Amino acid sequence: MLAFLMTVKISRRLAFNNGSLPIVIGIFSFIVPFFGGLSFRNLYTNNIDPLYLPAKKALAERTVIITTQSAILLPTITYFLSELKILNSELGRLVLSSSLISDILSVTAGTLAHIAGTYKNKSPMTAYRDFIGVVVLILIVFCILRPAIDWILERIPIGGANDQA
Q1: HSE of 22 in the Cβ direction (CA atoms, 13 Å)?
Q2: Which conformational region is residue 160 in: left (phi greater than 0), alpha (psi within -120 to 50 degrees), or beta?
Q3: 114 CB-near residues (< 8 Å, 6+ apart)
Q4: Which of 111, 127, 98 is nearest to 30 (CA)?
Q5: How far apart are CA 6 and CA 151, in angstroms?
Q6: Cα separation values, 41 from 36, 55, 165, Å
Q7: What is the model's pTM?
Q8: What whole-number distance in Å separates Cα of residue 106 and Cα of residue 111?
């Protein structure tokens, strides 16, 4: 969601002209908390009441929480910089680029985890169908919607509105 909202507000070319540093920051800002959380996931599993939540489901729930918490650091900082109206500064562009990379990585990890859970708990055929659906969605966004939006933006005069209905 952050990737969509921020690319609407800021030009893609402006956000991604910082070299490889945002990619490294974006990857590490997701990977380090993710693997740090996974290393502590199995602590205190013997204190879970089996009548409340089975241990297997508790571990799966903890994994979902770890993934979600790993993904919110940079988008939160980006939101604060947006509210302070310093998103166009050098720091703002670096955080924006890193945040977009981290957001894309977290969505990818969540999607792969969902497909793996579907494969394991439901059926392989359902997991394959979900994977094909994700691939088709990505292809539609990049091959159809993105060129269509670029075409529409080229037709709008600078500083004016699109009067065509």
Answers
A1: 23
A2: beta
A3: 130
A4: 98
A5: 20
A6: 9, 12, 54
A7: 0.74
A8: 8
Mind spelling out the 3-state secondary structure of 104-143? HHHHHHHHHHHHHHHHHHCCHHHHHHHHHHHHHHHHHHHH
- Computed on alpha carbons and rounded to an integer, the radius of gyration of the chain in Å comes to 20
Do 86 and 92 contact (CB within 8 A), yes or no?
yes
Q: What is the mean pLDDT of each run of 10 residues along the chain (165 residues)?
A: 58 65 89 90 79 81 87 84 82 83 86 88 92 92 85 76 57
Read off the amino acid at residue 148. Answer: A
Buried b (16+ CB within 10 A) or exposed e, 84-105: eeebeeeebbbbbbbbbbbbeb
- The CA-based angle 79-71-5, given to 5 degrees, is 40
- Local structure of residue 45 (DSSP, 8 states): G
Taking alpha carbons only, the member of 39, 25, 41, 10 closest to residue 103 is 25
